[in-house]
Design goal:
Low-confidence stretches: none
Helix content: 25-40%
Strand content: 5-15%
Radius of gyration: 18 Å
Distance between the termini: 13 Å
Order of helices and strands: HHEHEHEHHHEEEH
Number of helices: 8
Mean pLDDT: 91
Number of strands: 6
Structural class: alpha/beta
Largest sheet: 6 strands, mixed
């Protein structure tokens, strides 16, 4: 869903340098603390570094605000979020030292329904995610060289190999996962220790919070991602493919 164009010599050189930087940092920072990883990103990229947040919690946004007060926190408003998720975004913007940047898809839900038919998320969830998540994020990250995410290795088998710093080939950005090595216990301890905002749905049986039509509560013993696209082979929205 991206608009491809041939890279110039300068763009190719930039990509080569950034990729090498990311790969070296991934090795050097593998055993660093989450705050040290975020501090490296803030020091290296300055205003061209941002954090993305689904507003499941504000842990990575909080970490980044300690390293770079006023850091951009990018949020994708898909038009399908739970009210609790929008409320969490608004609370983060109000009480944390961050600049929340809300991205929206090119089409409203009504416009998408008119173009593709209602409930595209049921009939073709990959296309729905591409239109409402992947494309707007790719476009929204255009002004940054590096972005941070809350991916953790323990969340699912598909995320087990997540590097703390790596190269996002699709978007040609450095991708930082400062809490990649954390467990849920580490997250809970950080939230409690720093009074970090979390989505109220996490206290209501939801272990992972996405768009309302494609998210359900999880049962005891299920992994944290089991409530996303339940009953389908789909496990990721495509943002981290």
């Amino acid at each position: 869903m991206t608009d491809l164009h041939p890279l110039s010599a300068a763009e190719t050189e930039r990509d080569t340098e950034l990729r090498a930087l990311a790969e070296q940092a991934g090795r050097d920072l593998e055993d660093a603390s989450a705050l040290e990883i975020v501090q490296w990103a803030a020091d290296t990229f300055g205003a061209r570094f941002c954090v993305t947040s689904s507003m499941e919690d504000a842990v990575v946004a909080h970490l980044a605000s300690r390293a770079r007060p006023g850091v951009d926190v990018v949020f994708l408003d898909t038009g399908y979020h739970f009210p609790e998720t929008i409320g969490t975004r608004d609370a983060v913007a109000a009480v944390m030292d961050v600049n929340v940047v809300t991205l929206t898809p090119r089409q409203s839900v009504a416009e998408q329904d008119a173009a593709y038919g209602p409930r595209l998320h049921d009939r073709n969830p990959d296309l729905c995610c591409a239109l409402r998540k992947v494309r707007p994020l790719t476009e929204g990250l255009a002004g940054y060289d590096a972005w941070a995410t809350g991916l953790r290795r323990d969340e699912s088998p598909t995320r087990a190999g997540t590097p703390v710093v790596g190269w996002d080939e699709k978007r040609r950005k450095v991708k930082i996962a400062p809490i990649a090595r954390w467990t849920q216990d580490d997250v809970d301890a950080y939230v409690a220790g720093h009074g970090v905002l979390t989505n109220p749905l996490l206290m209501d049986g939801y272990a992972s919070v996405g768009c309302a039509p494609c998210t359900r509560r999880v049962a005891a013993g299920e992994d944290a991602r089991a409530g996303r696209w339940a009953g389908l082979a789909k496990t990721e929205c495509g943002l981290h493919a």
